[in-house]
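question for whoever is on the cluster today: can someone run the full assembly for these? two chains, 221 residues total. i dont have access anymore since they changed the login thing
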Amino acid sequence: MQLNVLFFAQARERAGVSSAILTLPEGACVRDALDALVREHADLAPLRAHLAVAQDGVLVRAADALRDGAELALLPPVSGG
Amino acid sequence: MATLSHEPLDAAAATAALQRRDCGAVLTFLGTTRDHHDGRHVTRLSYEAYEPMALRELEALERESCERFEIEACTVAHRLGEVPPAEPSVVVVVASHHRGPAFDACRWVMDELKKRVPIWKKETYAEGGEEWVSGTKLEG
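^ ran it for u. tokens below:
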């Protein structure tokens, strides 16, 4: 399956890109996506425990299934206001 | 109606939009950019958002505040991009029959905004260096 990954704030700066296409085997979950992204962008590793992940704009958990073609957003701790 | 804007926020217009005959209170909160943080001099602030999700969350805050408190209307606007010192980065306006619920609702909206809306603030310091302000992990 293919995912369109969006990186925000610290995640964007650490990855060095604001978006990327990620290809994973069928049946992959959010944890698999994070594993692959940290392998590809090692600087993301220290941020990983602090990241929230949204699939098509909805927060998901590590064990949640991914959907082919989804938009996956890496969201560091928020600081609006 | 919630808004995300790269232009300066117009608090007066946002306030006027909620003035109505049945409300004796219209409360406007401005969150403004500050030129210091933890003893450091901040020369530049900028905001970034996951815009579609942030907008939906701001709309949810408007809706939920009207359900939780005895208020008649609430609007939230957040600015994105660079915001010069002392300008508003966020404007919350609440209208209610009486003032008490307006104050309560406004505080709640700001507290929730800081916990659940995907917006990030970066500070640049006079002493050198820049940092994303440490924030709150989003919880599903």
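summary bc i know u wont read the tokens: The first helix of chain A runs from residue 9 to 15. The helical segments of chain A are 9-15, 30-40.
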